[in-house]
Automatic annotation (TrEMBL):
FF domain location: 247-301, 460-521
Pfam family, one: FF
Keyword Chloroplast among UniProt keywords: no
Protein name, UniProt field: WW domain-containing protein
GO terms for biological process, alphabetical: mRNA cis splicing, via spliceosome
Cellular component terms per the entry's GO annotation: U1 snRNP; U2-type prespliceosome
Region (Disordered): 1-23
Species assigned in the record: Schizaphis graminum (Green bug aphid)
Keyword annotations from UniProtKB, A to Z: Coiled coil, Repeat
Annotated InterPro entries: FF_domain (IPR002713), FF_domain_sf (IPR036517), Prp40-like (IPR039726), WW_dom (IPR001202), WW_dom_sf (IPR036020)
């Protein structure tokens, strides 16, 4: 690890060739980046003690990446380790160590004639070589506080990283050294006056705890007022000397002493000694440097508390000013800053806030007022539109045909509208939007009314048709309407009924259409009813011939219960159908009889022809000769035989 210095760790710089070692070492004139070394890290101060009257130096937050190059000089890990390592026998190296005019060490190579700020590996001890393997490096700030930087991730931390701590403990254990790390570091952590992230109540406690670790507490068996001998006893014999049992009580007691005396944060040590030196607690802290370290820790905490108090007061003043402006009716989002300054610069609530903070408050107030005015405008707009809609709803004379011009005249005569100043100041575009929405609603209502009327009318028309259908059913039950009925036959009966009159003039199916539909429906039932009639006739073994009358047929059918649902017209149609079939059978029988008779006549003629019958033949003579013949016997009627004989004898 590099030796401690007040500057940051720097990359190896090569001096111009042929420059001997006593010459100036590498410097910023050799190309260092301007600004790479922050001013706050250029000069170290005694641990725990800053320059009088100056705030502690900048302290980077934990785990904060350091800007630019690594700042601060790396410090050696342990003085005892470094000393032990330096005592080891080293081989002769080309590199030699030299000191610059500013007391910083640099290294010169007698062979290559190069110089470097970083210690070459040849000159490093085993401990330094081991520490080089860890990416975390140790540095000191300008106040002497130790911090750590990772050369790979550029991360900085006030606390020692675990890997570096383990490496140090390993090195210490190998050399047989037992040590308690970071005790001194807790004394040297500076307090950032500008950062709220650091614990406000811990700075003085840490410093006191670390400092008093080496303070000897008075022996409990010895009275506290005997600490300084007889002179001390006579000096404080009128005051009660507190008995402190341990170091922590001493820390708390000294803290309370400074608080009780109300030592300001800008007080010097000499001024403070004049105030607290006569207190019996003062001599119990033996060493002067211990007292001063406790005093410096107290000042650091006091400055922190004062800054917090000032910040809270400034914050409250800003909040009060913001509330004042937000509640002021004269302030709007359009108000200019210079107008507010002219009007309220004499008020304490205005003067208590700095110019920069007032500008910030003004920007916030303008933003909030603009947002509030926008919200109020939306609320007012919504209220006006809702109120105007209510006024239009109450105006029954407005319908879906009313124009915007007519509505404006009506509103001027409406008391609810005229007496509402907010409505009178309503934007015309919003009012027109409400009117359009209202007219659309009226149009929808009108359309709904028409639709309801259409549905009601259709329902009535359907009801009228159903009633007329029931009327036709009554006529059918009475036997007046059958499948064979004609409109002209039943019109005199139908036209006198009110159910017929209700159908007149309405669209859709007329009474004549319904009559035809009903008759067609009866006719469509004919085939099913004919089957029923056949079953009835079969069950009664009734045979229909050409001589069967309708009365005989109807009597047989009507005696059966299944005939109750039969249409009279279909029964009559079935009868005619059955008669037609009977007549057809009779005609077929006659035709068959004629064919058979003609065949017999042909056979008898052939027989007579064989007998050579002529006009001279006598029937009695011929008959006696053929009477036993089959052809003669087949014709049963004598008259037919004689007719055929006469025909044949005439040929």
């Amino acid at each position: 690890m590099a030796s401690p210095s007040s500057g940051p760790p720097l990359n190896t710089r090569v001096a111009p060739p042929m420059i001997p070692p006593p010459a100036f070492p590498p410097s910023t004139q050799m190309g260092f980046t301007p600004g790479a070394i922050p001013p706050g890290f250029m000069a170290a101060a005694p641990m725990g003690i800053g320059p009088p009257g100056m705030p502690p130096p900048f302290m980077p937050p934990f785990n904060m990446n350091m800007p630019g190059e690594i700042v601060g000089a790396p410090v050696s890990f342990n003085k005892s380790i470094s000393q032990s390592s330096n005592d080891e026998t080293k081989p002769i190296s080309e590199w030699t160590e030299h000191k610059a005019p500013d007391d910083r060490l640099y290294y010169y190579n007698s062979v290559t004639k190069q110089s470097s700020w970083e210690k070459p590996d040849e000159l490093k001890t085993k401990t330094e070589l081991l520490l080089d393997q860890c990416p975390w490096k140790e540095y000191k700030s300008d106040t002497g506080a130790t911090y750590y930087h990772n050369i790979n991730t550029k991360e900085a931390s006030w606390t020692i990283p675990p890997e570096l701590e383990e490496l140090k403990m390993k090195i210490a254990s190998e050399q047989g050294i037992i040590q308690a790390p970071l005790i001194q570091q807790s004394l040297e952590i500076p307090v950032d006056r500008g950062m709220d992230s650091i614990d406000a109540g811990s700075a003085m406690d840490q410093a006191m705890a670390a400092t008093l670790a080496s303070i000897a507490v008075p022996d409990e068996n010895r009275p506290a007022n005997n600490v300084s001998g007889k002179g001390f006893k006579s000096k404080f014999q009128a005051q009660e000397v507190p008995i402190l049992k341990n170091k922590q009580e001493l820390i708390e007691a000294f803290k309370e002493l400074l608080k009780k005396k109300n030592i300001p944060s800008n007080a010097s040590w000499d001024q403070t000694v004049k105030v607290i030196s006569r207190d019996p607690l003062y001599p119990q802290v033996k060493k002067l440097n211990e007292k001063r370290q406790l005093f410096n820790a107290y000042k650091t905490q006091k400055q922190k508390d004062e800054k917090d108090e000032h910040r809270l007061k400034a914050k409250k003043a800003k909040e009060d000013l913001e509330k004042f402006l937000m509640k002021n009716e004269d302030v709007t989002s359009k108000t200019k800053y210079y107008r507010l300054e002219e009007k309220y610069e004499h008020l304490d609530i205005w003067r208590n806030v700095s110019e920069i903070d007032r500008r910030d408050v003004y920007d916030d107030v303008m933003f909030n007022l603009a947002k509030r005015e926008k919200d109020e405008y939306k609320v007012q707009k919504k209220r006006n539109m809702k109120q105007l809609a209510s006024v239009l709803d109450a105006m029954t004379i407005v319908d879906h045909t009313t124009t915007w011009y007519q509505v404006q005249e009506m509103l001027l005569n409406n008391q609810n509208f005229v007496n509402d100043p907010k409505l009178l100041g309503m934007e015309k575009e919003d009012a027109l939007t409400v009117f359009q929405d209202h007219i659309r609603d009226l149009e929808k209502e009108e359309e709904h009314d028409k639709e309801r009327e259409r549905r009601r009318r259709k329902q009535q028309e359907r009801k009228n048709r159903d009633n007329f259908g029931m009327f036709l059913e009554e006529l059918h039950q009475q036997g007046k309407l059958t499948s064979m009925s004609l409109w002209k036959e039943l019109y005199p009966i139908i036209s006198t009924d009110v159910r017929f009159s209700a159908l007149l003039g309405q669209p859709g199916s007329t009474a004549l259409d319904l009559f035809k539909f009903y008759v067609e429906d009866l006719k469509s039932r004919f085939h099913e009813e004919k089957k029923i009639i056949k079953e009835i006739l079969k069950e009664n073994s009734f045979i229909i011939d050409v001589n069967t009358t309708f009365e005989e047929f109807a009597r047989v059918v009507c005696l059966d219960k299944k005939s109750e649902t039969l249409d009279a017209g279909n029964v009559k149609l079935a009868y005619h159908g059955f008669i037609e079939k009977a007549e057809g059978r009779e005609r077929e029988r006659l035709r068959e009889e004629n064919r058979r008779q003609r065949k017999l006549e042909t056979a008898f003629r052939s027989l007579l022809k064989e007998m050579d019958v002529d006009y001279k033949s006598n029937w009695d003579d011929v008959r006696g000769q053929i009477e036993n013949h089959q052809a003669f016997q087949a014709i049963t009627l004598e008259s037919e035989r004689l007719r055929i004989f006469k025909v044949m004898s005439a040929l």
